Each structure stands twice: as C-alpha cells, then as structure tokens.
C-alpha cells in the first residue's frame, strides 16, 4: 500500500475537483433549469433557490481549490440540512427517501474539509510563489 503514497495529493486534488464540479452542476441544474431539470427554482424561494446558490458557489470554490475547507464545510452543512428537512420525513434511509445525493455530497464535502485541497488547487499558488522565490534568489546570487 505504500506504493500509493506518492500519488496521495494528486488523487485528493482530483477527488476535490470532481466533487466540486458535480456539486456546482447540481446548483446550476436547480438555478437555471439546465442539465435535465424540469424547471428552474423560483428566485429567492426558500430553501431550494438558496440551496442552489450555495451549491453553485461552494461547488465552484471547491473545484477551483479556493477557500476549499470553508466552502466544503458550508456545502456539507447545506446538504445535511437538506437531508434532515426534505428527505428524512419520507423515510429513515437515503435509499428509501431519495436522499442519496444529499448524503453523498454531505459526506464527500466533509472529507474534503478535513483532508484539504490536495494538488491542483488555486489556493496553493501563493504558497508556491513564496517558496520558489528564495530558491531563485539563491541560484542567481
């Protein structure tokens, strides 16, 4: 299993990108009635429209790796809220009440919040620039 360790940060980064992209698509679907939606949510309607805004914004931030942990926590919490308010009244288990997506997004985003952004995150760029500048200065001196 130690052979997989070198790829860890890359896989975490790819996982974050995929989860963020799918979460943003979920928001796009609800907000604009695209990607197979029957109709867009009414602007300002509680909680659907607001949840879709959170999904779109947090999904985009997670996908890009900007403010990843905060966006993932907010997105995870919104999916927990969705599960307990919209799905749980229809049955206990996600398979019974149609809450599979809410459950998967909730836990997937929670993992991202705890593990961090991994590779390919735009939020890592300032740190890379700060650490590479002294190295360049030493080489030219």
Index terms:
70% helix; 141 residues; 6 helices; mainly alpha
Describe this structure in words.
By secondary structure, the protein is mainly alpha-helical. It has helices at residues 8-32, 48-64, 68-87, 94-97, 100-115, 125-140.
Q: Would you spell out the secondary-structure blueprint of this structure?
A:
Layout lengths: L7 H25 L15 H17 L3 H20 L6 H4 L2 H16 L9 H16 L1
Helix pairs in contact: 1-2, 1-5, 2-3, 3-5
How would you concisely characterize the structure shown here?
By secondary structure, the protein is mostly helical. The protein has helices spanning 8-32, 48-64, 68-87, 94-97, 100-115, 125-140.
- Output the helix-strand order: HHHHHH
By secondary-structure content and strand pairing, the structural class works out as: mainly alpha
Low-confidence stretches: none
Mean pLDDT: 91
What is the 3D shape?
A: globular
Q: What is the CA-atom radius of gyration, in angstroms?
A: 18 Å
Percentage of residues in strands: under 5%
Number of helices: 6
Q: Tell me the span between the first and last alpha carbons.
A: 43 Å
How helical, in percent, are the residues?
A: 55-70%
Number of strands: 0
Quaternary state of this entry equals single chain
- Major sheet details: none
């Amino acid at each position: 299993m130690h052979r997989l360790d070198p790829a860890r940060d890359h896989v975490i980064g790819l996982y974050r990108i995929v989860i963020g992209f799918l979460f943003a698509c979920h928001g796009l679907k609800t907000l604009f009635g695209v990607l197979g939606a029957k109709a867009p949510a009414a602007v300002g309607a509680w909680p659907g429209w607001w949840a879709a805004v959170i999904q779109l914004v947090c999904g985009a931030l997670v996908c890009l790796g900007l403010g990843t942990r905060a966006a993932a926590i907010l997105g995870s919490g919104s999916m927990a809220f969705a599960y307990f308010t919209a799905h749980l009244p229809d049955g206990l288990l996600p398979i019974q009440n149609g809450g599979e997506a809410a459950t998967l997004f909730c836990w997937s985003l929670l993992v991202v919040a705890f593990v961090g952004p991994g590779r390919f995150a735009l939020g890592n760029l300032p740190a890379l620039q700060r650490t590479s500048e002294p190295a360049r200065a030493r080489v030219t001196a």
